[in-house]
Amino acid sequence: MYETSRDALRERALVLDAADRLADKRKLFALDEGVYLDGNSLGALPLHVPARVQDVLTRQWGELRIRSWDESGWWTAPERIGDRIAPLVGAAAGQIVVSDSTSVNVFKAVVAAGRLAGEGRDEILVDATTFPTDGYIAASAARLTGHRIVPLAPADVPAALGPRTAAVLLNHVDYRAGRLHDLPGLTAAVHAAGAVVVWDLCHSAGALPVGLDEHRVDLAVGCTYKYLNGGPGSPAYLYVAERHQAAFDSPLPGWNSHAEPFAMTPEYTPAEGSVRGRVGTPDIVSMLALEAALDVWDGVAVEDVRAKSLALTDFFLECVEAYAPAGRVTSLTPVTHAERGSQVALRCAGAEPVMRRLIERGVVGDLRRTDVLRFGFTPLYTGFADAERAAAVLAEVLAGTPEA
Ligand SMILES: *Cc1c(COP(=O)(O)O)cnc(C)c1O
Question: Do 57 and 203 have their domain in common?
Fold first, then answer.
């Protein structure tokens, strides 16, 4: 029974992989014979990146030294690389700057959103199911600016909006269950209430279309080391819609965001455009590793990435259903495509030893305490045979691991 269903699903995987338009991209990445399903935490290394970083170190820094700020394009890297990310999130050029960590950009965006919203609006609505850092930062930002934090589920946002709402901080995709929230609908609702929305794109950029300009998002932040494969700790980005740039009032007005940074004046005059989101000297080595890593997106349509991501997660869920011992795992992943990100989350009693054994056998996902097995699907380098194999190994591990 199991053998026949396994043969049939393996066969399907081969057919799907053969028809995959993104299949060629896989060879651009450093992967081993295992199945890497943690690209939603740390994307895999594109193979050409080390040589590019070597050049940054030995030639640009080692030989050109200070001249590289100009001659190697270091000074303008944050905006240049922001423009490379822009098409992946549906933004026209000139609105994204690469800078700092996501946490720091959440701070800039939440404070700036409160300032854009103006007088008399004293509430900041925050996704209560968010990745913790966003909530911590928003709470501290609110303490500084005198706003009140209202934690709530994204679905409850429309009912909570009102004349007191200044800003709303939301995740596009929930990091735990992988639920995709309704960015167009929620953005429109926030605007109808006269408030400003900040979207966190950490789990959506590089995995699915975002449409920042199309949906008139105000501000957005995101990291680059997950689906964008920028490397550990690669700098994050901040999107400020063009219509808000002139009024964007950063709470961290460093010299890098000054209109004339080298004038070294005591008065702060903010630069025009996305430069205004910068703070201090950028982390050039990491930034240029990210720039090189973005080459893998050349010729890729985000719609193809999305189609493959949904097909992969559907197929993985089907294989898990067919192979896993009955009742051992329950999917938290939304069945509806419109509500699904690019990961599968499985609730599993005693998840910790299960994930440990999976990793020992080369199937790398991660654990969200206490009982969630999380598997990220990165369409550029994960195939259908990988998904089938991961499900088969999971079933074997479950069969050999007593229920907790
Ligand atoms: C990964 C992630 C972060 C990470 O923030 P850092 O400042 O880069 O550590 C923040 N928010 C969300 C929603 C994330 O998924």
Answer: yes
Q: Each residue of 76-122: pLDDT tens digit?
A: 999 999 999 999 999 999 999 999 999 999 999 999 999 999 889 99
- Cα angle value 299/302/304 (rounded, 5°): 85
Q: CATH no. for residue 382?
A: 3.90.1150.10
- In a domain, residue 39? The reply is no
Domain hosting 106: range is 51-297
Q: 3-class SS at 315?
A: helix
Q: Which two tokens stand for residue 255?
A: 């010299």
- Is the CB–ligand 1 distance for residue 200 below 6 Å? yes
pLDDT digits (tens, 9 = 90+) for 325-349: 999 999 999 999 999 999 999 999 9
If residue 314 lies in a helix (H) or strand (E), which one and from where to where?
A: helix 302-323
Tell me, yes or no, whether 184 and 250 share the same domain: yes
- Look at residue 111 and tell me if it is in a domain: yes
Domain count, the chain: 2
d(CA 230, CA 236): 9
Catalytic residue among 248, 374, 375, 381: 374
Alpha carbon nearest to ligand 1 atom 4, residue: 102
The pTM (predicted TM-score) of the whole model is 0.97
Is residue 200 part of the annotated active site? The answer reads: yes
Active site residue 225: yes
**Cis bond leading into 130, ω under 30°?**
no
Is 108 among the residues known to form the active site?
A: no
Final residue belonging to a domain, choices 297, 331, 346: 297
